[in-house]
Amino acid sequence: MKIVVAGPGCPRCQATERNVMNACAELNLAAEVAHVTRVEEFARMGVTLTPAVIVDGKIVVAGRVPTVDELKTLFSKLC
Question: Where are the domains of the chain?
């Protein structure tokens, strides 16, 4: 599973990345996690609101910081 956090690096984006990492750790999920900070790059991915979480090319959260529990539920359904 490839997970991308998209956002310019603001505190909300950093919180989202932390929550993604914590959710993966709690699920023992071996995922490749990346943080894309360049506007041009995440715009190409279809992201218009940040922070965004993209799983295997699909935007699953945008415009808000998801909780660890929410991410665990999402990741479990997508595995």
Answer: 2-78
Tell me which of 1.10.1740.10, 3.40.30.10, 3.40.309.10, 3.40.50.2300 is the CATH number of domain 2-78: 3.40.30.10
Catalytic site residue from 1, 8, 10, 76: 10
Q: What is the pLDDT of residue 79?
A: 76
Please indicate whether residue 24 is annotated as part of the active site. no
pTM for this model (two decimals): 0.94
State the amino acid at position 9 in one-letter form: G
Q: What is the C-alpha to C-alpha distance for residues 23 and 46, in angstroms, rounded to an integer?
A: 24
Q: Is 9 helix (H, G, I), strand (E, B) or coil?
A: coil
Confidence of residue 15 (pLDDT cuts 50, 70, 90): very high
79 is catalytic: no
Catalytic residue among 3, 4, 6, 13: 13
